[in-house]
Design goal:
Layout: H1 2-30, E1 33-40, E2 43-46, E3 66-68, E4 74-80, E5 91-102, H2 120-129, E6 131-133, E7 138-139, E8 143-145, E9 148-153, E10 159-171, E11 178-182, E12 185-188
Parallel strand pairs: 1-4, 3-12
Antiparallel strand pairs: 1-2, 4-9, 5-10, 6-7, 8-9, 10-11, 10-12
Length: 192
């Protein structure tokens, strides 16, 4: 009887520790940021105010600005809200498709997104965001639906990077989809 009691107690203790670690890891890893977007005149428009997502009022920024504070990790969610009907030729509905990064510490939006893999700056961004394609700057998503994309930021390095959200409108005639994008900045506080 005593042996059964000790095994039950041990199992309960191990389960409690596992649950506590899971809650701690989940709470520290999430720190969610949210960027809301709508489709207006078949263009992707960010509706999240420029002072949301920890963006300070005393810095130049755009609507959709994202700042991840020093030593914080973050999940970044992009939500397409409202009517998503596509009125372009043979269009169906607008859907979120991808997030791209580029312009490491650029003061203004880059002409092209993506990175040279030999560049040390690319290595930092890749460590933080998990780049799926360096040439385009495509970021690996952790969640993807028609109206929601999510990416993860480990925030190990301090820098500013531009991001571009892409929405596509598939066509009923099988031709390539229509594409629209919006591109504000993200700023990491880093840990170094």
């Amino acid at each position: 009887m005593r042996k059964k009691f000790n095994i039950s107690r041990l199992a309960l203790g191990v389960l409690t520790i596992i649950c506590a670690l899971a809650v701690t890891t989940t709470a520290s890893a999430k720190n969610p940021k949210e960027v809301k977007m709508t489709i207006e005149d078949n263009k992707l428009v960010i509706t999240t105010p420029k002072d949301a997502n920890d963006c300070p009022a005393d810095e130049e920024r755009d609507a959709g600005c994202i700042k991840t504070k020093r030593n914080e990790k973050s999940e970044i969610y992009f939500h397409l809200i409202g009517d998503t009907k596509c009125d372009l030729e043979k269009g169906t509905n607008w859907e979120l498709n991808a997030v791209y990064l580029g312009g490491y510490n650029f003061e203004s939006k880059p002409a092209d997104f993506g990175f040279e893999t030999s560049d040390d700056n690319y290595k930092k961004v890749n460590e933080d965001y998990n780049i799926a394609d360096s040439t385009s700057g495509l970021v690996s998503t952790i969640e993807k639906t028609a109206k929601k994309l999510a990416i993860y930021n480990k925030n190990q390095h301090e820098y500013l990077v531009w991001y571009k959200v892409e929405a596509i409108c598939n066509r009923t005639d099988g031709q390539p989809p229509h594409v629209t994008t919006s591109d504000p900045r993200a700023k990491n506080g880093g840990t170094d």
